Amino acid sequence: MDWRALALVAGSLAAVAAFAWPFFAPALPSDAQRTVPYLAVALVPVIVAGLTLALDRQFASAKAVALLGVLGAIGAATRVLGDTVGGVEPVFVVLILAGRALGARFAFLLGIVVVTVSAVITGGIGPWLPYQLFACAWVGAGAGLLPRLRAGRWARRAEVVMLAAYGAIVSWLVGALLNLSFWPFALAGGTSISYAPGAASFAGLLENLKAFALYSLATSTLTWDTVRAITTVIGIAAIGRPVLAALRRAKL
């Protein structure tokens, strides 16, 4: 692993800490609401560093830049269209197939480009944006890090099945991750799914993990995230093989 990859991993770990703070910081919900914009701003330098590191020799050719631009535009368009129907987000299909065919670093950058462009188009710029940037960047990069399959008669079909299964899993995981960005102050205290201050203790950690799991299950996992998972699986199954072949030819 070269220093660029290590830097991207370090930046991602910083983002993980920003996502997971409710389980380790004993903040009151009112404090959490005031803190989130600062956490989001703190992630911006990490994103800029990731962009700088990603723009190395892999993107030195005009073909690579053009491919990033075309896929970024397609991904942004699918994300904007997906916002009109809850959970129907074909953008994951674009990110996963690009990550598999073009590599983790390319897909990480593509995820950031897609979310940034779509946010500018829709006016969806706010404290939640850095969280969405990293979530989509991880989806694409993760597809690029999946194990390679041995060449054979069934390898292409197995690859599509693997990517479809990955798409379903990350659809639920991303929903949970994004819930973390607002769950601490989404509800008044005292309910079984509310954030409880005092997460620094082990008992508080277990209480918050249980409350968050119930919150995610009730608000997004069984509805929005499941629709996203179904959409992603259908999309990858329908166009996965020809799109992967086309992207691999374009990479050459």
TrEMBL record:
Transcription keyword on record: no
Name recorded for this polypeptide: ECF transporter S component
UniProt entry tagged with the keyword Membrane: yes
Organism field: Gryllotalpicola kribbensis
TM segment ranges: 36-55, 106-125, 131-149, 161-182, 227-247
Keywords annotated in UniProt: Membrane, Transmembrane, Transmembrane helix
